[in-house]
């Protein structure tokens, strides 16, 4: 069995693949989906000032250091610290943070998996009807016409009730929401296993 220092580390076949992987890491759902919401919630343009400062002086240096350390040692984040045994805890800490941060992403991917799985039906989609056990008596697919604009009764829409009562199981007084959402658990586990199977053997 070869020692770790003698093992050949698999790398990217082309520099373009490496750059695209970095772009995929940086341009994520948080920047496209959540960033605009946080800007609006925290003062609009004024929020950009601390964001840019923290990105330039905290995030970017740490990001460049992590990428540079991987390029220099040609190892993963845990094995890269073998040359400094006293610093091994940083690698394990980074690994723990990565796994911990995957949880909300796997949950979000699980939403898509759940909707996709429920789409394979010959009948009406479950979020288009109001006669399901998670729907309330006020469930309706109609809207109210006010000043030539369609204003939907959001709490009564079957799509909204499916999202809140079936997927999220929000504690809003609906008895159905007290049931354990094992479908969402299975969808999240399927997303986690798929991502793990794709990445466990490295970039190749």
What does this structure look like?
54% of the residues lie in helices and 4% in strands. With 204 residues, it is mainly α. It has a two-stranded antiparallel sheet. Helix 4 (88-119) packs across helix 6 (182-199). It is elongated and about 65 Å long. The two termini are 22 Å apart. It comes from Ciona intestinalis (Transparent sea squirt). Keywords: Membrane, Metal-binding, Sodium, Transmembrane, Transmembrane helix, Transport. GO terms for molecular function: metal ion binding.
Strand order of the largest sheet: 1-2
Quaternary structure classification? single chain
- Cα separation of the termini: 22 Å
Strand count, sense and barrel status of the largest sheet are: 2 strands, antiparallel
Topology as a string of helices (H) and strands (E): HHHHEEHH
Rounded mean pLDDT score: 79
In short, what is this structure?
The protein is mainly alpha-helical.
